[in-house]
Amino acid sequence: MENEKRRPLSNVRAGETVTLAGIEAGRGLHSRLASMGLVTNVEITVVSNNEPGPFVISVKNSKMMLGRGMAHKIMVL
């Protein structure tokens, strides 16, 4: 049931707040994202998701830009 609710962060609309459920990538990307504060159960607010513009999120009062490929590997609830 939980897997049915999981979706890539890249599919979340601007203004939505979601919870990080997991990262479907290798160790390198896992550690890079963890150093940015993107760890399991953290709340993420999507600030901007305009194609082809930047993908901007807010985590713990910090805004950051992600590549769309990276955002597609981050699974949220």
In short:
The protein is an alpha+beta fold and 77 residues long. It is built from three helices and six strands, in the order H-E-E-H-E-E-E-H-E.
Give the tally of β-strands.
6
Largest sheet: 6 strands, antiparallel
Give the uncertain stretches in residue-range form: none
Please give the CATH architecture.
Roll
Number of domains: 1
Helix content: 10-25%
Terminal residue distance: 11 Å
Instruction: Please tell me the overall pLDDT.
Output: 91
Q: At the first level of CATH, what is the class?
A: Mainly Beta
CATH superfamily placement: Ferrous iron transport protein A (FeoA)
Element layout with pairings:
Elements: H1 2-5, E1 7-8, E2 17-23, H2 27-35, E3 43-49, E4 55-59, E5 62-66, H3 68-73, E6 74-76
Antiparallel strand pairs: 1-6, 2-3, 2-6, 3-4, 4-5
Structure, described:
With 77 residues, the chain is of the alpha+beta class. The protein has one domain: SH3 type barrels. 25% of the residues lie in helices and 38% in strands. The protein is built from 3 helices and 6 strands, in the order αββαβββαβ. The protein has helices at 2-5, 27-35, 68-73; strands spanning 7-8, 17-23, 43-49, 55-59, 62-66, 74-76. The chain has a 6-stranded antiparallel β-sheet. The longest helix is centred in the middle third of the chain and has 9 residues, at 27-35. It is globular, with a radius of gyration of 11 Å. It starts with a helix and ends with a strand. The model has no long low-confidence stretch (mean pLDDT 91).
Top keywords for this entry?
77 residues; SH3 type barrels; 25% helix; 6-stranded antiparallel sheet; globular; 6 strands; 3 helices; 38% strand; single chain; alpha+beta
